[in-house]
Design brief:
With 672 residues, the chain is an alpha/beta fold. Helices cover 44% and strands 11% of the residues. It binds a DNA duplex (15 and 10 nucleotides) through helix 3, helix 5 and helix 17.
Length: 672
DNA sequence: AGTAAAAGGTTTTTT
DNA sequence: ACCTTTTACT
C-alpha cells in the first residue's frame, strides 16, 4: 500500500531482482503491469540488476498481453485455434457497426446509439459483470430505451466473434479466467511460483479472479497499489479488489509506504490537502497512525490507511495558481512560464503540461507551434485511429488472414462507387469467411465484379496484393507497394490526401524494424503507440521537447515542473461526474495524481471564460470558477490574476440602426 | 437499387 | 471533427 512517489515500481523491481538473485527461475515469475511500456522498463531494470541470469525471460506484461500469450498455448482447451485474431477497440466498434446494419437497426426512423457507445456499454457490462439493465440506468441513461435492441445486437456480435474465431480485449480476460477454472487450470497454476502485480487499484473484478486463479497453494503473491490513485473506475476497475485482498488471500502482510522521494513539502501539502477531502464513506478508514518505520499492520479485514505523504525535501518554490481571462491568455502565460523555466535550467524534457481531456490542450498546442516550442502529446487521437492508417493496416490484415471480414470490408469500401451493397455482393463472390475458400487468391485472380468507377483501382489493388502475398519483401516494402493503390484511392476519399499519404510513408519507415508482417501487426494491436508518430520512432524534433499529457496517461511519470491546465470546476471535476458521489470521488483522485507528478515546481491555471461545448460553432461561453477541490487550498498557492486591461475592445451596444436593411436593398438592386 | 452528398447530432478519461 | 440518418441523384 504505497502513496504517490514512495517507490512502488522500485519496490517491485527490487523484489523481482532479489528473487532472481536467489536463483528463482525467471520463467516462473509472472509480473503483471498496467502498460506494456511499464513491463518492458521493469524487466529491463531487473535484467540490469542481475546480469547473466536471463532475467528477460520473466513473464512480464499487461493482463491482456499475457492472456494473449497463454491462450495461444492453451487456448485449444477453450476451443480456440492457435491463430485466432485479436480485435482492438476500433475493430470491435466496427464489428458492432457491421452487425448493426445486418440486423437492420436505425432504419426505423428512430435514432440508435452510435457504434462507439454500443461498444462502451458492452464493455462496461462485461467488465463490471453487471446486468445490462443496471448498466443502462446507472451509466447510460440516455440509451435506456434501446435495451431490447441492444440484447439482440450483443447476441449477434458474440455469435460473429465465435464463428470467426476472433477475440476482443474483454474476451482475452474472460477466456483466461475461464481457463483457470477449467481442468487446464491446474496446469496454469503449475507455471508460476511468484505472481506480482503493479497498480492493483486499477484492476477489475475479472482480473482479480484471474490473479486468484493463477496462484497455486505454494505460489507467492505480491500486489502493489495506491487506493488514492484509482482513476479507472470508468473502465470498471474497482478498489474493492485492494480492500478485499487480505480477506481473499489469508495470511496477507500489509506494508505501507508513506515517505515520498519525489516532491517538495509545499507540493505535498497540496496533495495531502486534496486527499483530506476524500469523503467516500464506503471506504473503511483506519485512522490509527501508522508507524512509518515498522510500516507493518496485521492483515485484518479490509483496512485502509489514510496516507499523509511526507518528504525530507522540506522547502521549495511555492506552487503557483494562475487565473486567466480566457484560454488564449492561459496558453500565452504558460508558454512564457515554460520558456522561463528553461532559462532557469529546467530542460523541456523535465517539464510537462497535464489536462483532464485531450482537447483541453488544443489552444496551447497552437501557441507552442507559433513559438516553435517542440512538444509531444500523449493521449488524444491516436495515429492508428486515423482513417487512412486503418485503411492500410486493413490491407496488411487481409494479406495476413484472408478470412478477416472486417479488414476486407474496409479495403473494398475504400474504392470509388463501392458502398455497402457492393461490398456484401463481393464478399459473397469471394466467399470471404468460408474456411479454406482462400478469398485472397480468388480476388487476385480477378474474381469479383466491380463497378466501372472502381475498375482501375481494383486492378491496382489486385496487383498490389499479389505482389505482397509471397512476402519475399519485408513489411516496410509491402507498405510502399500498397501505397501505390492508396495514391489512386485517397484523392477522392479524403480532402487532404497528400498529408495522409505522407503518413503512410511514416508507417513504412516504422515497419522497417520488423522482420515479418505478422509481428508488425500483432505488436500494433496489443501495444498501440500512445503518441502520434510513435510508430516511426521519435519525430525529427530537437533533442529536447515538452510533454503534453492527459492526467490518465501521466500515471507513474514525474517531472521537475508540472503545469495543470483548465483546473476549473466543470473540467476537474468533469461536468459529467457531478451526478454521483462515486464519479466525484474519482475526479478528486485524478487531481491527486496530477499534483503528485511534480518534483519541484507546480503551476495550476484556469481561464475564467470557456466555451460551453467543444463542437460549438458559436461563441457561447460561461464564466468559470476554480475547481471546488482546490478552492479550500488556495492558501497553499502563490496567486496571480491576469485580466486584460479594461481599455481593450469595449462592447459598445447601440440599437439596431438598420444597416442590414440597407445592404439587402443594395444587393437586391443588382438583380431586380 | 445503390451510391454519394447534405443535414443533423454528439457525453471525458484508455488497457 | 466525426458518425449516423436522410435526401438527392445515377
Amino acid at each position: 500500500m504505497a502513496g504517490a512517489g514512495t517507490g512502488k515500481t522500485r519496490t517491485l523491481v527490487a523484489r523481482v531482482a532479489g528473487l532472481v538473485d536467489q536463483g528463482v527461475d525467471p520463467d516462473r515469475i509472472l509480473l503483471l503491469t498496467f502498460t506494456r511500456r511499464a513491463a518492458a522498463e521493469m524487466v529491463g531494470r531487473v535484467a540490469a540488476t542481475c546480469p547473466g541470469r536471463s532475467a528477460d525471460r520473466i513473464w512480464g506484461g499487461t493482463f491482456h498481453s499475457i492472456a494473449n500469450r497463454l491462450l495461444r498455448r492453451y487456448g485449444a482447451a477453450a476451443g480456440l485455434p492457435e491463430g485466432f485474431t485479436v480485435l482492438d477497440h476500433d475493430d470491435s466498434t466496427d464489428l458492432f457497426s457491421l452487425v448493426r446494419t445486418e440486423e437492420g437497426f436505425g432504419q426505423r426512423g428512430r435514432r440508435f446509439p452510435r457504434a462507439e457507445t454500443i461498444a462502451a456499454i458492452y464493455s462496461r457490462m462485461v467488465n463490471s459483470r453487471a446486468r445490462l439493465d443496471d448498466v443502462l440506468t446507472v451509466d447510460f441513461p440516455w440509451c435506456a430505451d434501446h435495451g431490447d435492441d441492444l440484447r439482440t445486437l450483443f447476441g449477434a456480435y458474440t455469435e460473429h466473434k465465435r464463428r470467426n474465431h476472433v477475440l476482443d480485449y474483454d474476451d482475452l480476460l474472460l477466456f483466461w479466467r475461464g481457463l483457470t477454472v477449467s481442468p487446464v487450470g491446474e496446469a496454469l497454476r503449475c507455471l508460476f511460483d511468484h505472481v506480482l502485480i503493479d497498480e492493483y487499484q486499477d484492476s477489475n473484478s475479472i482480473q482479480a479472479d484471474i490473479v486468484g486463479g493463477m496462484c497455486g497453494p505454494d505460489a507467492e503473491l505480491c500486489a502493489v497499489g495506491d487506493d488514492a490513485q484509482a482513476i479507472y473506475g470508468f473502465r470498471a476497475a474497482t478498489v474493492a479488489n485492494m480492500w478485499a485482498f487480505p480477506t481473499t488471500h489469508p495470511g496477507t502482510e500489509v506494508i505501507v509506504l508513506e515517505q515520498n522521494y519525489r516532491s517538495t513539502m509545499p507540493i505535498l501539502a497540496v496533495a495531502n490537502g486534496v486527499l483530506d477531502q476524500q469523503t467516500d464513506d464506503r471506504q473503511p478508514v483506519d485512522r490509527q497512525p501508522v508507524d512509518a518505520e515498522a510500516g507493518v499492520a496485521a492483515g485484518g479485514p479490509a483496512s485502509i490507511y489514510r496516507k499523509q505523504l511526507w518528504s525530507t525535501r522540506r522547502t521549495g518554490p511555492q506552487p503557483g495558481l494562475v487565473c486567466c481571462a480566457d484560454e488564449g491568455e492561459q496558453s500565452r502565460i504558460l508558454a512564457e512560464r515554460i520558456l522561463d523555466a528553461r532559462e532557469r535550467g529546467i530542460d523541456l524534457r523535465d517539464q510537462a503540461v497535464l489536462f483532464r481531456a485531450g482537447h483541453h490542450a488544443d489552444g496551447l498546442e497552437l501557441e507552442l507551434v507559433r513559438r516553435d516550442i517542440p512538444y509531444v502529446k500523449y493521449g488524444g487521437l491516436k495515429y492508428l485511429e486515423t482513417a487512412h492508417v486503418k485503411d492500410l493496416l486493413s490491407m496488411l490484415r487481409v494479406l495476413e488472414n484472408p478470412e478477416d471480414q472486417l479488414a476486407w470490408h474496409r479495403v473494398l469500401r475504400s474504392m470509388d462507387g463501392i458502398g455497402p451493397a457492393t461490398v456484401a455482393r463481393l464478399a459473397e463472390e469471394l466467399r470471404i469467411a468460408k474456411p479454406g475458400s482462400n478469398a485472397l487468391a480468388r480476388f487476385v485472380d480477378g474474381i469479383g465484379r466491380v463497378p466501372t468507377a472502381a475498375a482501375e483501382q481494383a486492378a491496382e489493388l489486385r496487383a498490389a496484393l499479389a505482389d505482397c502475398v509471397a512476402e519475399e519483401i519485408g513489411p516496410s516494402a509491402q507498405i510502399d507497394r500498397l501505397k501505390r493503390f492508396c495514391d489512386l484511392v485517397f484523392p477522392s476519399r479524403y480532402d487532404n490526401s497528400e498529408a495522409r499519404l505522407a503518413d503512410i510513408d511514416q508507417l513504412a519507415i516504422g515497419a522497417r524494424g520488423y522482420s515479418t508482417r505478422s509481428r508488425f501487426l500483432t505488436e500494433l494491436t496489443l501495444d498501440p503507440p500512445s503518441k502520434t508518430g510513435d510508430v516511426a520512432g521519435p519525430p525529427h524534433l530537437d533533442d529536447d521537447w515538452l510533454t503534453l499529457s492527459t492526467i490518465h496517461s501521466a500515471k507513474g511519470c514525474e517531472w521537475d515542473a508540472v503545469y495543470l491546465l483548465h483546473a476549473a470546476d466543470g473540467n476537474i471535476p468533469s461536468e459529467m461526474a457531478l451526478g454521483d458521489a462515486r464519479g466525484l470521488a474519482e475526479e478528486l483522485r485524478l487531481l491527486y495524481v496530477a499534483v503528485t507528478r511534480a518534483r519541484t515546481e507546480l503551476t495550476v491555471s484556469f481561464p475564467l471564460r470557456f466555451h460551453v461545448n467543444r463542437f460549438a460553432t458559436d461563441d457561447r461561453h460561461v464564466y468559470a470558477q476554480l475547481s471546488r477541490f482546490l478552492e479550500p487550498l488556495r492558501h497553499h498557492f502563490a496567486e496571480t490574476v491576469n485580466l486584460p486591461p479594461d481599455d481593450g475592445d469595449p462592447a459598445l451596444i447601440v440599437g439596431n440602426v438598420g444597416v442590414a436593411d440597407e445592404v439587402d436593398a443594395m444587393l437586391e438592386a443588382l438583380w431586380s
